[in-house]
Amino acid sequence: MIAVRPGPPLTGTVTVDGSKNAALPLLAAAAALGSPVQLNNIPGNTDVQIMLALLQQAGWHVAHPLNEPTTAVILPSESRHRAPTLVRAAHIRASYYLVPSLIARHGEARLPWPGGCRIGARGMELHFKAYEAFGDRSTCDDSGYRVTAAAPRLGTVSFVLPFRSRGATVAAVLRAVTTSRPLRLGEPNLSPEVLCVLEALRTVGWEVRAGEHLLSLSPPSTRADGVAVWDVPGDKIEAGTLACAIAATRGTARVEGVRDRDLAPLIAALHQLGIPAGTEAGVLCVRAQDAEPTGRPLRAIASLSPGGLDADFEPPLMALALSLPGSHLFADAINPGRHSNLLPQLARLGAEIEEISPTECRLTGPQRLTGAGVEAADIRTGSALMVAGLTARGITTLGGLDQLRRGHADLPGKLRTLGADICEVTP
Ligand SMILES: CC(=O)N[C@H]1[C@@H](OP(=O)(O)OP(=O)(O)OC[C@H]2O[C@@H](n3ccc(=O)[nH]c3=O)[C@H](O)[C@@H]2O)O[C@H](CO)[C@@H](O)[C@@H]1O
Ligand SMILES: C=C(OP(=O)(O)O)C(=O)O
User: Fold this and answer.
1) Which domain, by its residues, includes 317?
2) Which ipTM score applies to this complex?
3) Which residue numbers delimit the Enolpyruvate transferase domain (predicted)?
4) Which of 196, 231, 266 is the last residue in one of the domains?
């Protein structure tokens, strides 16, 4: 487990890893393409390691150039063995991104239900609807699901999502790639993680028009030769978590390696709280040393809409808001089990948070927290508890590191680079 103690305000400069939630669909897009892709800035967290292992098991080569662990070349292998049983697909949520490439390669995708964070019921019926729009058939039982390829068809596939699911948007886009069919997708998810897949497809000749209400894709007229080179964007959530930690300790520090536009909703929330922060040319500067908190209420409502606040920013913002004056509201109806992971753990540190409903809560800051033993039941609960531990009197011990490492190769190390008093201890 990790032991966290309050210390001096965080200072200095740290660089974020590539984003887990962008790397996962980009790896699946590389597999769907069927021609070599070099992917740079791949993070070393365990979810991404599992995805790379799944790709290899399912028939793709994953080659790391010598001394470049964050780069991989993904390309299909020649051998066409039977569809494998991908048992570890049950460990990560994003295993469902592999369905289009598995169907294209093996004629069917047979997978266990996806895993990932236990943050409430996490359906995937919209993915099946997307595949059915392409003519595929899906069946499922308690242990998993199976999607079987339709006989090849031509023509544009049109489909409207009833809500802006990121997973279902990527599913439809990648199925368009593996069938080389034009797609018109209504009410798409246009989060940075989806946009980076669309940008990657543009580099290999796909015509992409991403409007708020309609996403249109048309395949390239000729197949691109050579190796496509794509970059995983820096992890906006890791950067946001570090920003909350810097602000909670009233520090002034720089976080490098993240795209400016990906942080706009987080920076708006920091400004609302009176924390001076901004990005320029991939560098996020947080200047909380002499900040004067506004005392204004923060309304942090997780959203799937374009430009909305990513649900994964909410937990670290909540940990920060506990140290700032004002009555702050948090809501995450996207991940309905998140608050039941996070709130009881913050309560162990002495936080007083009023649950308005299972997905909405209000807290009034500033509150004085006291170190205690806490447990990460999901990635962002883990990172939020580290932020809270930096302001709690005494020692906070955090268990459940396997959860944290699913999303970050070494978040404690990054906080230590900024001067945080964090160490790993063997219980
Ligand atoms: C790997 C990855 O990128 N995970 C992110 C992704 O999760 P996830 O892949 O769950 O995100 P989606 O946008 O697809 O889903 C949003 C919500 O709709 C539900 N849903 C989705 C599809 C469906 O067919 N049926 C259904 O009920 C999901 O269970 C979830 O509760 O977006 C979440 C919300 O922004 C983030 O917190 C997760 O970190
Ligand atoms: C919820 C998350 O991940 P996943 O969807 O992979 O479980 C997350 O990244 O916080």
Assistant:
1) 2-16+234-424
2) 0.99
3) 5-414
4) 231
